[in-house]
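User: Hey, quick favor. My workstation is busy. Could you predict this chain's structure for me?
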Amino acid sequence: MTNKRKPLNEKLDKFIFGREEENGKPADDSKKPRQSEQNLEKESSDLLDKLTKDSPRQEKPIRVSLDLSPDMHKKLTNLANRTGRKKSEILRILLEQAFEEINIE
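Assistant: No problem, here it is.
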């Protein structure tokens, strides 16, 4: 009984690029904040929308190490749990948004 092994390409792609899952959007608050708070909430809701959408990865990533303070790591973990995404995906989205804001291509 010599069975051929199945290729691991699909599992490798899922490991590197993440799974394609659909997540729901977070609920909105019923309060009416001031104008500056509304702008912050709009930006944060735009960011949450980006985090909840599935973004296709087309290139193989390059690994980068990052040292975080325990407080920042806790916030990142909470955001990952809240959005249902991996921490690495959240960091990629945040970096893309930062590059867009400072106009780096």
